[in-house]
Amino acid sequence: MAISAESALPEGLHPYAEGLEAGRVRYQSCGDCGAAQSLERHACQRCGSVRLAWRDAAGVATVYAVTTVARAPDDSFRTLVPYTLVLATLDEGPRVMGHAEPGVAIGDRVRAGFFRHGERTLLRFERE
Ligand SMILES: [Zn+2]
Fold first, then answer.
1. CB within 10 Å: which end of the chain, N or C, has fewer?
2. Boundaries of each ChsH2 C-terminal OB-fold domain copy (predicted)?
């Protein structure tokens, strides 16, 4: 039986969010073949194994896509606009989304930082 970790656990206890609270970027890797997973999976995208474990990434990534958010998705983000969001490819392979310093460009090498936003800790990349 497959239970979605996202719906089964309170947000703060999700391994990815828990990692951010501890100042770590986490990703899943396969316990059988070692493949790093992009996005959260319930089975390995390479070999189909369900033995997936969360690991800490080194926090260094390459910017894959950049966007500037001018309109806040909700009230809590209104004080931050305009802000920069990136999709960044961790050196370990998976892509993660996070805030970034203004002016970052596709291909820039960035390092993960963290900031408190309300009750949560969010990812913010800065140039290396
Ligand atoms: Zn695998």
1. N
2. 54-114
